[in-house]
Amino acid sequence: MKKKIIYFFIGIILFIAIWSFVSLKINSEIIFPSIDKIFLDLINIISQKDFYSNLLYTFMRVIVTFALSFLLAITLGIIAGIFKSIRYILMPIINFIRTIPTIPLILIAVLWFNNNLVPIFVSLFVIFPIIYDAVVNGIINIDKNLIEMSNSYNVSFKNQLISLYIPSIKPYILTSISQSMGMTWKSVLASEIITLPTLGLGTKLYESHLYLNTVSLFAYCLIAIIFNIIFEIIMRLQNDL
């Protein structure tokens, strides 16, 4: 464990050293700013009140997207997992959703929804299939003998759902949550950058790019990376419980 921590910090130091070397060689703040200027700008950003408004709206979109994806995927996934006919009916629809390119979907969604809602709609299409597949696969892999035994003892569907299906698919769900939470964050940010909602970190990223404020652009990227790491750590800790 200690060696892993040491190697981790060596990696960070090496990354900073390489970045600093490249920054000195290029010697252009617009193209490749130094790390110290990025961190100073980051401190300046988080000291401003509007930063927390933008962060809150992005965070709310992530939570709403994930909650909607989770509820929809769990509901349809359980039904499709139990009833094979429903699974085959939904298969072409799920495959279609899974293969839609994100950028064209954003451009279409802009025509249908308010810019503040587009990131939620687009991210829903990205995340839903991941959780849905996990639920369906979890139910398919349940021991058939347990299902037959439950049916032979006339166990109600409600009790089967609570005592058999949900506990059996829990590991699959936790894994899919761990995979999809980070993707939700990235998808919402990408959608915000293109659709430019009134408030959101993606909008601030685009504004930094538009005005060639590369230092601020990297600072916002660093903020996005930090929160993505936080989400992934929380999900991993949840899986370990």
Automatic annotation (TrEMBL):
TM spans (from-to): 5-24, 59-83, 95-114, 120-140, 161-181, 210-231
Protein localization: Cell membrane
Alphabetized InterPro entries for the sequence: MetI-like, MetI-like_sf
PROSITE patterns according to UniProt: ABC_TM1
Membrane as UniProt keyword: yes
Keywords noted in UniProt: Cell membrane, Membrane, Transmembrane, Transmembrane helix, Transport
One term under GO cellular component: plasma membrane
Top-rank taxon: Bacteria
Membrane topology: Multi-pass membrane protein
Residue span(s) of domain ABC transmembrane type-1: 55-235
Pfam annotation, one family: BPD_transp_1
A GO biological process held by the record: transmembrane transport
PANTHER family, per database record: ABC TRANSPORTER PERMEASE PROTEIN MJ0413-RELATED, ALKANE SULFONATE ABC TRANSPORTER-RELATED, MEMBRANE SUBUNIT
Record family assignment: Belongs to the binding-protein-dependent transport system permease family.
Protein name (database record): ABC transporter permease subunit
Organism of provenance: Brachyspira pilosicoli
